[in-house]
Amino acid sequence: MQHKAINLNEKFARISDLWSPRVVAELNDYQFKLVKLQGEFVWHEHPDTDEVFLVIEGSMAIRLPDGEVSLAAGEMFVVPRGVRHQPYAQQVCQVMLVEPRGVVNTGDSGGEMTAPNDIWI
Amino acid sequence: MQHKAINLNEKFARISDLWSPRVVAELNDYQFKLVKLQGEFVWHEHPDTDEVFLVIEGSMAIRLPDGEVSLAAGEMFVVPRGVRHQPYAQQVCQVMLVEPRGVVNTGDSGGEMTAPNDIWI
């Protein structure tokens, strides 16, 4: 029996909206989510968990309380729990997020950029 | 202050041995590890955790009890907890593993391919 790999580019091709993470895999109680970013997100934090950003295609940056980090394809960054951050991208950027199941994209901030959770693709 | 991203290719360039995972990041109690594979690993399982394989460069496959899965760059697979598996690669393949801190590469099998754990790069 041939098992099927999860092909990230195939998954990204099916995502048309921005800032709306889609789950592609679970590892125990953690989720791997794909998201397309462009423009500025809201400042927010996740009080209970670290959050991994891994850029698959394009480039983005994350503003942090004391500066920022720039990320190109093949680069990753861990935003520590409780640290406020604001992701942004000039052009559409394809990103993999890794975080525990149940984490909401806007964290403690809420608002209109809050995406539904647990949407698989 | 400019924070520094983790550049996967820079990290891989510093790994010269095979089958010996190096930690590049932690997300809560989970670790992101980079490893170069070539040849056949030992059949083994991790009784207590799932394990993610994400191919960054090259290609590999994982034999499973009921078949196998082929993985090219940009593809991932979750080996469920307790499922025996044997990774192998014809050419050198660069892989990111994600799993809880403390997971040993050879799982329940041990043997000479067991790598030291928690080695950061």
UniProtKB/TrEMBL annotation, chains A, B:
Domain spans labelled Cupin type-2: 39-89
InterPro entries on file: Cupin_2, PKS_Associated_Protein, RmlC-like_jellyroll, RmlC_Cupin_sf
Pfam families in UniProt: Cupin_2
Family matches, as Gene3D superfamilies: Jelly Rolls
SUPFAM superfamilies the UniProt entry points to: RmlC-like cupins
Entries under CDD domains matching the protein: cupin_YdbB-like (cd02226)
Annotated protein name in UniProt: Cupin domain-containing protein
Species the sequence originates in: Exilibacterium tricleocarpae
